[in-house]
Amino acid sequence: MRARRRLLVANWKMSRTPSAAAALARALVAIPRPAQLDLAIAPSFPALDRVGAALAGTGITLAAQDVYVEKEGAFTGEVSASMLKDAGVALVLVGHSERRLFRGEREPDFARKMERLVEQGLAPVYCVGETRAERDAGRTADVLRSQLAALDGFSAPPSGLILAYEPVWAIGTGLPATPAMAAEVHARLRAELAARFGTGVAGSTRILYGGSVSPVSAPGLFAEEEVDGGLVGNASLVASDVAALLAAAAAPTTGAARA
Ligand code: PGA
User: Fold this and answer.
1) 186 assigned to active site
2) Which domain holds residue 61?
3) Nearest CA to ligand 1 atom 6
4) If DSSP states are collapsed to H, E and C, what string results for 140-191?
5) Which residue out of 166, 192, 224, 226 is catalytically annotated?
6) Is residue 257 part of a domain?
7) Which atom of ligand 1 is nearest to the CA of 11?
8) Residue 185 contacts by C-beta under 8 Å, 6 or more apart in sequence?
9) What is the pLDDT along the chain (259 residues), one digit of tens a residue?
10) Which residue from 110, 111, 79, 116 is spatially nearest to 95, judged by alpha carbons?
11) Quick one: which atom of ligand 1 is closest to the CA of 210?
């Protein structure tokens, strides 16, 4: 038995209207899911209610793609952690590279978002990852370390914390990291977690891989003991692909001996 339960998080980004999202959620609910796997779906805010209704009683977790840094008040257009909680959300993405790139959000913002989630008992999926230029310059480890600085203010990890390693160059490109690259970075992230919070926390924290996870790339990635599941964009919009990813995630790992 794996020490950590595998998890797939479907990140639907800004696609699917609420009615289309509800239909897709129903299609995913109908896929037989191995008992040892967890599945979460992150639709857009307006679709949370209908997707949540489709997921009720299924054991599939309702997730959100973002949360605002403040608790409540005059912040037109923003969504608070308490609103997400009331809507039935349990898991929230923080620090996705598209928020970093298109909205200019940085570690201090992510720290505040995670504080808001902790206050509401919601678990963050904190996303980190280097750009192609950063990898080519040999800066991957430094970049990841500076992104983990969003956790600096926490003496204990945010409850339920999950990390997602998402190399920016792999997202939506059809060019995933190799299994060896993912395993190496995950091990590095786990060592960083151990240094901050101790080996117990590091050993029990799930680290997902994201970036062009597909039925083709998933078997190799999920063969790695270090890879505790996936944060999946494009492939999560296709029910047959999700079925293939679940099957790949349920397969036994073979890469445990990788040095
Ligand atoms: P992708 O997106 O699976 O389409 O590469 C992953 C993500 O951005 O979380």
Assistant:
1) no
2) 6-250
3) 233
4) HHHHHHHHHHHHCCCCCCCCCCEEEECCHHHCCCCCCCCHHHHHHHHHHHHH
5) 166
6) no
7) 9
8) 140, 144, 165, 167, 177
9) 678 999 999 999 999 999 999 999 999 999 999 999 999 999 999 999 999 999 999 999 999 999 999 999 999 999 999 999 999 999 999 999 999 999 999 999 999 999 999 999 999 999 999 999 999 999 999 999 999 999 999 999 999 999 999 999 999 999 999 999 999 999 999 999 999 999 999 999 999 999 999 999 999 999 999 999 999 999 999 999 999 999 999 988 875 545 4
10) 110
11) 6
CA of 155 to the centre of ligand 1 (A): 30
Structure tokens of 102? 């298109």
Q: Into how many domains does the chain fold?
A: 1
Using DSSP's 3-state secondary structure scheme, residue 193 falls into helix
> Max CA-CA distance within the chain?
53
Pocket test for ligand 1, best of 15, 97, 132, 231 (most atoms within 8 A of CB): 231
Q: Taking the model in full, what pTM does it have?
A: 0.96
* Domain assignment present for 74: yes
Nearest CA to ligand 1 atom 3: 233
Scanning the structure block, which residue is given the tokens 């956790």? Answer: 151
Triad 118, 119, 124: Cα angle to 5°:
25
- Report yes or no on 1 lying in a domain: no
Domain contains 119: yes
Could you tell me the two tokens for 93? 């993405």
Q: How many other C-beta atoms lie within 10 A of the C-beta of residue 133?
A: 10
- Read off the amino acid at residue 215: P
Mutate to test the pocket of ligand 1, among 92, 99, 126, 232 (most ligand atoms within 8 A of CB): 232
Residue 232 Cβ inside 6 Å of ligand 1? The answer reads: yes
Instruction: Check which CATH number belongs to the domain holding 123 and give it.
Output: 3.20.20.70
